[in-house]
Amino acid sequence: MTTKKMLLILFILLGYALCSQTAILQCDFETLCNDFDVDTNWGLTDGFHPQSINHDHTLNNSSGHYLFYSPKSLPPFYEIKTEIKTKDWLEVSTD
């Protein structure tokens, strides 16, 4: 099997696993969300801070909220460890 085919299969399986978990992960960052544990390198912000954006992917405007990466230490960046984890264990559906 070629590398391209293996990557395609992996991508399809990952997409299926993520799509089958939509009932568990309902976080849109516009309401109180406890689906994720994030470390101190991440922050929740609106579309105007820390740098303005045209739109977020929930409301599709600049007033939506999203997580942004803001490392607490200076380079070298290879020494920075950051995490976003789900609080619930996600399992791939066997249906």
Could you explain the architecture of this structure?
It is a single chain. It is built from one helix and four strands. With 95 residues, it is an alpha+beta fold. Strands 1-4 form a two-stranded antiparallel ribbon. Strands 2-3 form a two-stranded antiparallel ribbon. The radius of gyration is 17 Å and the shape is extended. The two termini are 26 Å apart. The model has no long low-confidence stretch (mean pLDDT 67).
Poorly predicted ranges = none
Average pLDDT works out at 67
Tell me what portion of residues adopts beta-strand conformation.
Answer: 5-15%
**Bulk shape:** extended
Helix content: 10-25%
Report how far the terminal alpha carbons are from each other: 26 Å
Oligomer category: single chain
Classification by helices and strands: alpha+beta
Query: Largest sheet, described in full?
Result: 2 strands, antiparallel
Instruction: Provide a count of the helices.
Output: 1
Count of beta strands: 4
